[in-house]
Design brief:
Length: 358
Amino acid sequence: MSEFWSSVVHGLTPYTPGEQPKIDGLIKLNTNENPYPPSDKAFAAIRAVDQDTLRLYPDPQSTQLCAAIGRYWGVPADHVFVGNGSDEVLAFVFQGLLNKGPGDTGALCFPDITYSFYPTYCRLYNVGFQTIPLGTDFSFDLKNVPPESGAVIFPNPNAPTGRAIERDEIESFLASHPSQMVVVDEAYVDFGAQSCVPLTLRYKNLLVTQSLSKSRALAGIRVGFAIGDTALIDGLNRIKNSFNSYPIDRLAGAAAAAAIEDHDWFETNRGRVMASRAKLVRGLEGLGFEVIPSQANFVFASHPSAEGSRLAEQLREQKILVRHFAKPRIEQHLRITVGSDAQVDALIAALKKILGRL
């Protein structure tokens, strides 16, 4: 460890992202990327950007992109905040909305099995937190959130389990806990769950975050956004403008706005992914896997007679990557991204071969 590190750095356990190896012929099902290219309109928007403007700073307010997101969701543009991927947006949320500081009571709550960036952000920004155990079926029950908690954040659908909470249940919690900040992380919502964005117009304590990395197939340009009451958005902008007042570059902003507006591509793409998810589930269950019901672009599965870590290793030997988490309660599970039908077929064939040796 460096003698020049701060006490904060010494105490951090960084988030571990999914592996991004450079292996020829690899079937990559470990990071929940979309298996299909983005909208052609996104590429056209990038090509249409005037080269001369690239010498100038981008719009600090990302006006065009915020307007496109607002039109799509039926909210005013000043209810929208954008950042470099939803991870950066969430970082600002933890800094500006969930970090209450000394003298405030109530810890931040989130599921014990969830997006592992949450505890990392808590340690980075000194946010006190408490985890809420998922049920034996990996469901998250908002009734288990302590009434004295200061705020709650959860992905919906949850990651890495894929389970989702119905919007009515979330609205009931919002109505009965008006003084608690609620952040719903909807990175995977477009693959079958109900978005809470419409609720942001009625509940001032709700913020919804989303990503263009999954259902819009734009993980490579790093754009995410949040939607909420203007007071919440103003708080996020204060953080952003104290850190980086030009977060979205011109090319990314143009591509993201075009992708948001291409409704036909979006519906076709997510339909293909959901159909492939059903095929993947059938294939896994046919091999004896137990698969958690998923409304995301991945599934969470375990096999009663095979260790999760060993299965991941054996798949890697066949140039197929899946995600394994060596953590209590889920060490036997694999998180498998929904790939194309051809990739699903290759995975099932590889697993059939592996299990046949047991």
